[in-house]
Amino acid sequence: MAYPINLRVNAPNQIFVRGRGLDAELGGSLLLTGTTANLVPQGQFDLIRGRLDLLGRRLDLTDGSVSLRGSFDPYVRFGASTQVEDTMITIRIEGFASEPDLRVTSDPELPEDEALSFFLFGRSVTNLSPLQAVQLAAAVRTLSGQGGLGLTENLRSGLGVDNLDIGTDADGNAQATVGKYLSDNIYTDVTVGSDGTSQINLNLQVNPNVTVRGRVGSDGDTGLGVFFERDY
Questions:
Q1: What pLDDT, in 10s, does the model give residues 104-129?
Q2: Span of the secretion signal (predicted)?
């Protein structure tokens, strides 16, 4: 049997949101109505204090809120701004918690990928090293999940690489891979994880049937193999 519910919860502080680089404390109230079988939440919690950590860069949050609008998938909105030389850069995370969207704006105006690159590394995305490129891509994944795919495509184009893949490893940690053809038969890629691990792979296509593959990892894991393939 379902029972009716009409309950207001007041929490002036100590409501914490943590994850994806966010660490925030909020306060507010929540009204629960409906029945025990079908709860309907309505309420909002506003930012008291918080920060955003991104590749070792820490920003104080300037505004933020978490709203429940009839479902338990809250709508989140957080913003942080900082001055980098003569440019004001603002990072905003907004959307439902299940799929938030990442937006990076700047004044004077720069493309999103340029603004984020300038904030993290102080240089244009076209001048990033391979390691910085995958760190930048992993940062997008960490902040926005799948919501950053448009920005990821801009990064791939801006970096001039043939492949930019953002995902997670077997342990669920964010990771990014940047790959490029050095010539028609040589392909290399670099994978960097949010836990600090990295691996460089090199594929040499000797002929249509023979490929030499090598790898070097930051954990000391290395390997070299010759692979023969033929279709029958």
A1: 888 888 888 788 888 888 887 788 77
A2: none
